[in-house]
Amino acid sequence: MAVIPDFPGVEANIVVNGETLKEYNDDIPSPPKTISKYIEAKSGAVFEIEFKFTPPFSNKRAVSMIVTVDGNELDEPLLRPREILKKQGHRSCGPLSSNSRLSSVQRYSFSALDIGQYEQIP
Questions:
Q1: Which one of 14, 73, 87, 97 has the lowest number of neighbouring Cβ atoms within 10 Å?
Q2: pLDDT tens across 86-120, in order?
Q3: Residues 75-107: b if buried by 16+ CB within 10 A, e if exposed
Q4: Phi, psi at residue 30, to the nearest 5°?
Q5: Cβ(66)–Cβ(95) below 8 Å
Q6: For the whole model, what pTM was predicted?
Q7: Distance of alpha carbon 95 from alpha carbon 73, whole angstroms
């Protein structure tokens, strides 16, 4: 669960098939007010981003976020004050796509990973 100490009561997880993926710490220092974690990704797997707000996080004002994946801004959830502290949390499943008549969600999915064989250097 990615948690930024400067924002108590906020957590985020990546979920695949209803299961929260295990996170691993990043050894490289992150910029201020940023946290970096790693997860194991299965090529092509559909995923969701789950986020939760719990006290002491305030629900007196609306919350707006930008979901960025691989440097692309894909979703901008807006939560009204009465929605923020929902016990079950919130999920971003992917960006909305629409044409003149229909709207649909383009589900997030992991890109294909190319993991090759590498020689160890003695």
A1: 87
A2: 999 999 998 888 877 888 888 999 988 777 666 66
A3: beeebeeeebbeeeebebebbeeeeeeeeeeee
A4: -95, 155
A5: no
A6: 0.80
A7: 9
